[in-house]
Amino acid sequence: MAERDDIMKSSVGLDYSRYATGSLAFDYERLLADTGYDIDSTHRIQSQTAVGNTPVIELHNVTKLIRVAAKPGKGARVFVKDEAVNPSGSFKDRRASLSVFEAAKRGYEGVAAATSGNFGAAVASQAAKSGLRCIVVQEAFDSKGIAQPEIEEKTRACEACGAEVIRLSVGPELFYVFLCILKETGFFNASLYTPYAIVGIETLGYELALQIKQLTGRFPDAVITTHAGGGNVTGTARGLRYAGAVDTRMIAASVDLGGLHMASDHDFNRKSFTTGHTGFSLPFTTWPDRTDVPRNAARPLRYIDRFVTVTQGEVFYATQVLAELEGLQRGPAGNTSLAAAFAIARELDEDRIVVVQETEYTGAGKHPLAQLDLAKRMGIEIKRGHPRENRPGRAIVIPEQPAQLEAVDVDLDHVRRSYLRRTLESLPADVPLSDNDVVFLAAETRIETGNARQLVEEIRGKT
Amino acid sequence: MTEIIAKGTWVEISNIVLKAGERAPQVPVDTQHVPLELRARGFLTGPTVAGQQVEIETVAGRRLAGILVKVNPAYTHGFGPPVPQLTGIGNEVRAILRERGDYK
Fold first, then answer.
1. Distance between CA atoms of A119 and A232, rounded to whole angstroms?
2. Of A183, A251, A307, A429, which has the fewest CB atoms closer than 10 Å, so is most exposed?
3. How many domains does chain A fold into?
4. Of A179, A195, A211, which marks where a domain is finished?
5. Interface contact A370-B79, CB threshold 8 A
């Protein structure tokens, strides 16, 4: 563990222990502020590599379709921020840009990232532009050698930009392999969870708020974010606040993969989604520091106003509708928030504004057809029906009509308690909690300090 | 006849990082029973024949050793055939909007 901490320190150039303010507490805002980047400087750096400034598109036909199933006067206007037009095809370019810029500035020879998704291509793209070497470590195939097609596409995209790609079979020991690579190369750890990777997303929320205000004369009523590791929610929400959109509700949406185990070789190719799902979002929301850096700069529970899940079939349906009614081939994983928008916009008044906060590029492997064909090969039933019949790993049910799309609420109070339990478990029972710790836990969970103290005592009393 | 694969050829190698039974304690049983395999691609640092232990130089400049498993490995991912459960959706939603005069 000590060696792990040393490797982390030298590979991200940050001494996280400097930020500790209690047994559990740390100064989150100072950790982010010490990057030295604000919205303006981030924007300038991102503009140098054509990252950001993505268009906001009103989905007129999707809105009409939502209103068909809505009560009179209901059915909010739906917009999407078309992040797919970033250089490597997703908002992940924003997260990679500051990391790679910082690595180059500090004289690192290269960057490394442990990621099977769009982030790998983003780091490879940014590294190519900066003249840095790049290594991406992926969890890519099962024990039968069957590659997840979306990850195979990411392998290609990373290699296309000149990155070395290390592909592994299923298992969390990937992080051991990754640590060995960091140690051997001395490369910068372009982790998804460093302050740079989070500050880089703030421009997304900031741009989005101002674009919507310019288009409609008001800030959005709700922004729906596809939620996995928590960075997207965190950075976007912070950007919205900087722009002054303090009343905008931040809604996190994940694909429900309940029942599938994230470290299971058997389940690996039965998920049909590689990100934006509950296999990431639930553990990362309740235990953000389970990452490859000592302190995760993505702290979603601080920002989420509502947390919903949608089914695999609903996301594939929404992806098809986006292509056929709006002419936008995007996703599929990024369309998780679009699927949720069908249900959320339906309940809101017509003059309200809902923004689907990202799109991602689509292509070979990274497409509903590739995922559903693989699912069939894995023995999963594909059928039309009610989304409630969807069973991850067993049946993918494509809705029969738009009115069936539903956003199922995750009980945030339950999530907050899980967060507290998990965090308090990490602390030996005889270590006292300071006032700083309680204030920190209250901020982490958005519970009033008095209530947080009571909950903490309740949980600690039981253990 | 065994064909010689020239130095500098772009190849894929395989390595077993952890054998079955040596996996991290927290992984589920099915994963415990299979090895952790690593695949990497790079340029051969010397001539060889198929199936041999070889050394490659990766594009990031690292030298890695492993069993040669593929020469000039192909990208085989694609789209596959259209899925009937998706092909009808476009007509369905256009019909819903047309019925209300909301779409041409």
1. 12
2. A429
3. 3
4. A195
5. yes
